[in-house]
Model the fold of this input.
Amino acid sequence: MQAWQVHQLGEPSQAMQLQDVERPVPGEGQVLLKVRAANINFPDVLMCRGHYQVRPPLPFTPGVEICGETKDGRRVLANPALPHGGFAEYAVADAAALLPAPDTLDDAEAAALHIGYQTGWFGLHRRARLEAGETLLVHAAAGGVGSAAVQLGKAAGATVIGVVGGADKVAVARELGCDVVIDRRTQDVIAAVKEATGGRGADVIYDPVGGEAYTQSTKVVAFEGRIVVVGFASGSIPSPALNHALVKNYAILGLHWGLYGTKNPKLIQHCHEQLTELAARGAIKPLVSERVPLSGGAAAVQRVGDGVTTGRVVVVPSLENGAAA
Done:
């Protein structure tokens, strides 16, 4: 089979090599899956660079989220068991953790439903306890993680403010349903949020960016507001001033979604049921901006790493043969 392999750490476009390798052999409790679609996540970029908390042994195949097909033809969502990741024709995954792919989503959309939407659901509902009528601010609202949070926030009855970088991303954020869109490249984010909220600020802030975005969050968080720290796509990890959190009476909430797989796996199943229901009634739908063949995998992962994509970029191996995704 063909698979993208990382033999030496570095930028994805250099580190990832498309090679012919043997199909992975499932271990105990694992299953072999034919990859129907593999969604690109920022951790894939970090893994190539050697900056992710999980460091699989070299060589490895990145790709942490797929829609796959079991031997008996079932479509499932899975997080492949590294080092046999999803940017390949076949991957392996833990049998107990497989989730049914929603019938209302195609392969690429289904592949993008899992990590980003689960992270959004846990962040907004489990950690921040977002309520209908509250204001939600989402940084990087047109990106893969942010777009999921926007849709989930709207589905929960919140007023959603999206912060993006660039006119093309402004248009995407509006299409996603943001009530207010702020272009950080041309607008003063702090002033714009205060104007949009009548000076009150945002009740919940969803931050997958870190760096300057986090600093802005602390200046526009409402009384009893909650800042959900999801990741650091900016590459800069902020150091919170806890005296500021005390004086302004806000909460800083960390979210490491992957921990729920070992700490409370039943919650992941419950979340998937909620997401499947939301997808069935059209309240959420992964924004897939690009479907690329397997041969375009490395370049696509690099584009995600460079921050020039909107929504989700998904690798679809069958496109190599001209088949529909």
